[in-house]
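Subject: two folds for Thursday's group meeting

Dear M.,

Sorry for the delay on this. The cluster queue was jammed most of the week, so I only got both jobs back this morning. I'm pasting them in the order they finished. Each block is the input sequence followed by the predicted structure tokens. Could you check whether the formatting survives your parser before we put anything on slides? The first protein is the one we discussed after the seminar.
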Amino acid sequence: MSTTSGVGGTSSILEQYQFGEDREVKGNDLGKNEFLELLVAQMNNQNPLEPQENGEFIGQLAQFSTVEGVEKLNSSMETILSGYQSSQALQASSLVGRKVIVPADKAVVDTSETFKASLVLPTSSSNVFVNVYDSTGASVGRVNMGAQEAGNISFMWDGKDSSGKVLPPGTYRFEAQATYQGETKGLYTLLPANVDSVTLGQNGGELMLNLAGVGSIGLSQVQVIGQ
């Protein structure tokens, strides 16, 4: 007696999938529809003298439920990722043209008005100052702040050199230093920068801001978003 009577469409599926230690999938991965068709084919083609036991049948149904659950999870994750990317796009469009405060040592300065920024002082110091350099690396100014307590300390530069001459607008570098523990040490500066454009993160990656005079920086590094 033949035990391989066919069910429409199942023979081709049985040919595509092999089960064993070295299972090879031809084409797409085994999904819930293919799994169900294989299960039906197996039931139709079982040996009537040795029918499949209930325990084996229940185990295969459990595997089917697992496959279906994984597909639903993948679909949900794709929906979440799509929503996150849409949120990134909206967030990006709102940031272009605005100023942000970021950890940096360079900034585009309009010397016709007072430049405002801050530095991070880890401990109290008797002497805090900020050296200012132009785009060629030449020292053009200094902001003396005297004694300061630990914390985020604001400072201002009037855009003038040591002789009181107003310097041209452009990109300037700010080097903050302080004397403590018997040494003069460098400090982190937090400077304003204009958002020229943004780059959306790929596959859920971080949104990158392209800042004037600074370059590309991750959104997570932004300390303050201005107007």
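Second protein, same layout:
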Amino acid sequence: MKNYKIIVQYDGSKYKGWQKLKDSDLSIQGKIETVLSKMSGEEIQVIGCGRTDAGTHAENYVANFHTNSRMSPKLILNHLYEFLPQDIVVRSVEEVDERFHAQHNAKAKTYVYSITKGKFRNVFNRKYSFHSEEKLDLVQMKNAAEYLIGTHDFQSFTSLKEGSKSTIRTINSLDIIENGMVIEIIINGNDFLLHMARLVVGALLEVGKNKIKAIDVQKILNEKKRTEAVPMAQPKGLCLRDVKYSF
């Protein structure tokens, strides 16, 4: 049996996220498994590098699957391109060591949250960025970001029920970059909890709008409890950019 690693790019606008759901066929995992299973004549389980929220996107999502099929990586790639929906593209297929596991071997992930600013809206980025007419205080947002870098208990920045699993995670870097009419919040961490990236962005946006102070982000983090002071950022602005492995 062969183990294949795939890199997936998708527009998640109409999907419920990566993970296959019992009550819906609108998942990225489900769409890919359906195509691969029909291709190979066997039931294929695709292992993803982690969950992604409904409505979010990915540039380089990593997954793997095992199969007895003798089709070459190139033929598998072409088959996926032909039969997957147009908003899901498998960018590469390669045979890897049988021990490779897309989730367990992941060491770091990078998410990017895109914000367009100003009065004018653009139809071509409407599905992929959050639009803000308010002027954001980027200096204070960067000050707030400093409190989140490092290893912390992120219970205040997840929708997980308290005690369901460890909420200690490490944010390696958190950069806020302005380029013309676009602001990118780039978060690199060892792993992300349910809704963690969107809640971190939500807190930074509240600081940028002067609704809370930068120091309040540290207080919220230390409280280890979800609060209404941190709204969840809209999903459409969030994209998984990269996943790193040491395997």
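Two things I noticed about the second structure. The chain has a mean pLDDT of 95. The first strand starts at residue 2 and ends at 10.

Cheers,
T.
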